[in-house]
Amino acid sequence: MNSSGTGDGNEYPASVRPLRLRAADAFTKNGAGGRPPDRPLVIIDKRELRRECLAQNISAAKPERDVLTYSSAEEWERHRQDGPPPCAVLLNVAERQLEDPDVESEVRNLVAELAPAPVILLTDTDELTQVVKALEYGAKGYIPSSVSIDVCLEAILLSMAGGIFVPASSIFAMRHLFEPGGMAARPYAGILTDRQVEVAEALRRGKANKMIAHELNLRESTVKVHIRNIMKRINASNRTEVAYKINDLFPDRLATD
Predict the structure, then answer these.
(1) pTM exceeding 0.70
(2) Would you say 226 and 213 are in contact if contact means Cβ atoms under 8 Å apart?
């Protein structure tokens, strides 16, 4: 097999181009768990442009550490013996739902194979139900794609140091449980998440995806994911039907508009 060196004695397949990350506390042999400094960070993402952009951004911030990119967990499995074990794996599940048996199997298998190195999920949604699923499967981090690269890096370092990262927006979604009235004040409770409620309300008012994304500080692709999930939850076939069903299910909301 053709291979390329990194100058530190480690060999990688020619098809895998390592980038360099700067050593930080969690990346050095004096960091969390006494991990040696030559263990790479692995990024798994099926979209080449997306994974290479992320790798380049991480490399720019942390230039002394290898970052290896793969299109799938299967590709990583084929090459995992070609170099040192990873210090962490960042798996981009994108818009896929963690309830999907294939996604669950992929995450659980990675967690089992990599322990004690952390598996960190990158995703297009900050829904609390998805965060809980990720933690249930053993992931040590849940990073929505709406965060900055700096937050992403800190989340990776936290997970490598033994912590668990979840987005603050997901935690804030639980605040209604501690407020007077609790669940009774939320007519959507049990049907939609708080974020889905915000998107559904915007749809009901006829707002376009771009406007919804701007108002809720989300990516437009994330808004589309929320809309698809809302459609599944209320059995709607399009956004017009979503608006109609929201009005039909919760007519009392109209009185407050």
Answers:
(1) no
(2) no
Amino acid of residue 93: V
Name the amino acid, one letter, at 147.
V
CB half-sphere exposure, 179, CA atoms < 13 A: 10
Q: pLDDT band at 184, cuts 50/70/90?
A: very low
Helices H, strands E: what count in the chain?
Answer: 10, 7
**Angstrom distance (rounded) from CA 44 to CA 69:** 6
Higher pLDDT, 74 or 188: 74
Place of tokens 């004096």: 30
4-42 burial, b if ≥16 CB within 10 A, otherwise e? eeeeeebebbeebebbbbebbebbeeebbeebebbbbbb
Burial of 230 (0-12, 13-18, 19+ CB in 10 A): buried
Which residue carries 């530190």 as its tokens? Answer: 8
Q: Please report the pLDDT score of residue 92 as a whole number.
A: 94
Which element (helix H / strand E) includes 119? Answer: strand 119-123
Plot region of 130 (φ>0 → left; ψ -120 to 50 → alpha; else → beta):
alpha
Find all residues with CB under 8 Å of 163, minimum gap 6, and list them.
140
Of 125, 85, 121, nearest to 106 by C-alpha is: 121
> Domains plus CATH for the chain?
3-168 (3.40.50.2300), 174-249 (1.10.10.10)
